[in-house]
Write a structure and sequence with these properties.
The chain is α/β, with parallel strands linked by helices and 272 residues long. The chain has one domain: 3-Layer(aba) Sandwich (Rossmann fold), CATH 3.40.50.720. Helix content is 47%, strand content 14%. A seven-stranded parallel β-sheet has the order 3-2-1-4-5-6-7, sandwiched between helices. The longest helix is centred in the middle third of the chain and has 29 residues. Helix 1 runs parallel beside helix 2, helix 1 packs across helix 9 and helix 3 packs parallel to helix 4.
Length: 272
């Protein structure tokens, strides 16, 4: 509870998955965490977990694509506490089952708005807040190993853009006390069910004896199911908590150190 004592952190996309794990991790290290996402109930559960561990957390539910609301949210956090130490741009989504030839432009637009535009707005809002409050800040952008592949489709294109934004910001901020890091996860329990075709997910689950998967209305698996799958597929499916550990590592480094990128994967590749 001392590594991030009195630090103020914002985590986007904190309703589930990486965002929830990152928020809990930072909160357990002493940071006052401000979670934002679309769904209130799961963030309330994460807030309760943070507070039970002795941390502090506040939550706000809104659509990350609302530029004015995201800007206001970040500015309000910094204004109330006179500092902003950590900004984690985690919100993202992926439609990967369709090819570019047959894909939906509406799906592409949503990915671009969430994965690229909202992330850029979050970075910009954080930089302004950190400069105005004189904070030594860390901005962490969650990308994907899809950004390392040239043929990774529209989803991958959005993650290539994230890496481009990160590299550009690193150069822009060389004379500021603000560091920017991109973390690129491979196959983790929280993202593999969202970024793969449903039939592939069901096939992989069946290969380890998990059948009759029940998806929610958004096509996501319940948290308990994801945890059960991860426990049975540890060599090829990572635990979101390890990505949260990587974020915590980055934001606890001295401001003189700039960690530009981290790639984090399970030890084995998915059998696709």
């Amino acid at each position: 509870m001392t590594a991030l004592k009195d630090r103020v952190a914002v985590v986007t996309g904190a309703s589930s998955g990486f965002g929830a794990a990152i928020a809990e991790n930072l909160g357990s290290a002493g940071a006052h965490v401000f979670l934002c996402g679309r769904s209130l109930p799961p963030m309330q559960a994460t807030k309760a977990a943070i507070e039970q561990a002795g941390g502090r957390a506040d939550i706000s539910a809104f659509d990350i694509r609302d530029v004015a609301e995201l800007q206001r949210f970040v500015a309000d956090v910094a204004g109330r506490h006179k500092r902003l130490d950590i900004m984690v741009n985690n919100a993202g989504l992926g439609y990967t089952s369709a090819s570019i030839a047959d894909g939906s432009p509406d799906d592409w637009r949503e990915m671009l708005e969430v994965n690229v535009l909202a992330l850029a707005v979050g970075c910009q809002a954080a930089i302004r807040a950190m400069r105005e409050t004189g904070s030594e800040g860390h901005i962490v952008n969650i990308s994907s190993v899809a950004a390392l592949r040239r043929e990774s489709g529209m989803y991958g294109a959005t993650k290539h853009a994230v890496n481009c934004i990160n590299s550009t910001l690193r150069q822009e901020l060389e004379n500021d006390s603000i560091r920017v890091t991109t973390i690129m996860p491979g196959a983790f329990a929280t993202n593999f069910a969202r970024h793969m075709d449903r039939s592939v997910v069901e096939g992989l689950a069946a290969s380890v004896g998990v059948n009759d998967l029940e998806f929610d209305d958004d096509g996501r698996l319940p948290r308990e199911t994801i945890e059960a799958l991860q426990a049975k597929m540890k060599p090829i499916l990572g635990d979101a908590a390890r990505v949260a550990d990587a974020v915590r590592y980055v934001v606890t480094q001295p401001i003189e150190l700039n960690i530009e990128e981290i790639v984090i994967r399970p030890p084995r590749s998915l059998p696709l």
